[in-house]
Each structure stands twice: as structure tokens, then as C-alpha cells.
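Researcher: I'm preparing a figure for a lab meeting and need a structural model of a single chain. I don't have an experimental structure, so a prediction will have to do for now. The sequence is pasted below. Please return the structure as C-alpha cells so I can convert it later.
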Amino acid sequence: MFKVDSILRGAGGWFLRSGIQEPGGGVARYYRTDVGKNAQVSTEITGYAVSTLLYLAERTGDESYRESGVRAARFLTRRAWNPALATFPFEHSDNCERPKALAYFFDCGIIVRGLLAAWRSTSEQEFLDTAVAAGRSMIADFESGTAIHPILRLPDKAVVEYELRWSAMPGCYQLKAASAWHDLFAATGERCFDVAYERAVDRALCSEAEFLPGGVDREKVMDRLHAYCYFLEGLLPCAGRPDCSRTIEAGMQKTAAYLDDIAPEFARSDVYAQLLRMRLYGARFAGVFVDEGRAAFEAARVAEFQSTGKETCATRGGFMFGRRGGEMLPFVNPVSTAFCLQALALWSDYQSGTLQVDWHTLI
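Model: Understood. Here is the structure written out cell by cell.
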């Protein structure tokens, strides 16, 4: 049985002391253990880090997490945000060569959710103002009559031609980012956000059956499971609808079946964590029965991916991205760490009878 307090201290300490967060507040996409170097600072990953650090602050009462989370949020509003274009560019170039001038719909939605978490934590208006401006531009720039375009070229905001990979095509996975519109509606009452989210729900429900497996390459199917879990998460705000609750229950079963089949060859820690989180959130919002045996199995698999022991501070406490065969891949990943620490914390709460879940706290 894992000790959740120790896991959270390790994972939280990795965020604070590993160097994955730059002094200016931005967070790198991952750390490479084989070359001892961070990848580029990513606006999307910084958005995830804001939500994670503030979640840790609320759970532990340790203000150092809040300070780091607010620093990351200010990086997004004061450095990453492009007010002239009203969008967040894909990656930031402080720690590497200049990235391609692109904007991703998915990234913008994750950033908006992070900024709203910062606003709820601090009441600082700049976080809400930037989130609202970004949410409006997501509607204006990415939505078409039939789809949400995944990528735009900057500065003209022309649609980048679709490619045969899930992140470069429209798909049900976009619903996780589109749920930022739901949160903006709750924060502002602006009807356009609610309408945009409902449109995204209808599109996602119509297309989700086509998303899996998506091909015959089994490692790519595992990658698509990660994205499919985004779709399930994006349904949570409307999980009370019968069609959505049925889709959540069936979707978790489908994800688990693919995961079990492919995991001996290639497994992603975030897929285990996302599925475990969905079981617990699904019980609360969609009324789905929690298979406790299966949840315990997933929690045990999640815990296996945490770096512990004699590693340097650049890796200690973080969660590895994945495992191929019996070997861990050389990536310590902020998003994997965020999802895994939250999944294990929620499972511990469930076991102790203290579980309380709120949509806004889902990282």
C-alpha cells in the first residue's frame, strides 16, 4: 500500500526544486534523463502546472506551492500571452531555440483553466481578464461551422492543414480544452461560452466512436487512449445527461480493455492515472459504479512510475512518462506527474471515505 503523503511530498518537491519550472515561471515540457536537459518551456504545460501547484497548495496548506503556481500564472499573462494576436503561442523560447509560430486550440483551453484556477485562488483580476480574452478568441479563431480547427499559423491565424495524427486533426479529445468555455460561463455568465461548450459536446459525442483505435500501430493506440481520456474528462460538466453518463461508462470500459492489451509492450503512466481519476469523478458526476478492484490495480500501476531513491533532484519525486517493455522511457513529465499525484490522492481519499471531487479541481 502506497503512502499518499510521501508521494505528494515527492511529486510536489519535484515541481518546486527540480528546475522543471524556470525562474521566470514557465514550465518545461519534460526533463530528459538521458541527456540531463529540459525541453522547451511550454505554455500548455505551464497551464497544467498552475492547476497542479494550486491543487497541492489547497490540499497541503503549503504556501510555497501557491507562490510557484501564481508565478507560473503571471508568466502566462505577462509574457506568454500575445495581446495583439489575442492568443497563446505554442511554446516559449527562453530556454531553447525559437519555436514555430503556431497556436493550438487544446493548449489555449488548458491555459484558460489554469488561469481560472489562479483567479479563484487569488482573486487577481488579470488572471480572469486574460482567461476571458483567450476564451473569446478561441471561439472566434478556431471554430468553424463543422469543426474546431486544432492548429493555427501565426500571425495571420490561418488554419494549418490537418495531418494524420490525433493532435493535428479535429476530434473528440478537444472537449477537455472546450470545457474551459463551460468554466468561463460559470465565471462570467457570458452566454456565448455556454453555447460554444454545448456545441463542442454535441460534436464530440458524434465523433467519439471513430477515435479508437485509430490505426494498427499499437503504441499510437496507447497515445490515443491518453487523448480519449481527455474526451471523457470533458464530458464531466454535463455528465448528468443520460447520453453523457452512458458514454462515460462505456468509454472507461473501452479504455481499460485497450490499456490492458497494449500495456505489456508500451504503457503511459498518464493513461492509468486518467482512467483512475475518471472512475472517481464518474461516480460523483455520472453515477457510474466504482470497480474497486480495478481502481486498486490502476493505483498500483500509477505508483510504479514515480522516481524515487537515489536520483538527483532533477528527477526525484517526478513521474516517468511511460514504459516500453520493462524499461522506463527517459522522460520525467510534468503532466504525467500532475495526473498521477492527483489520481493517487483521490484514490486515497476514496479508500478513507473522505473523497470530495469538484470539476474545477480536475487538473
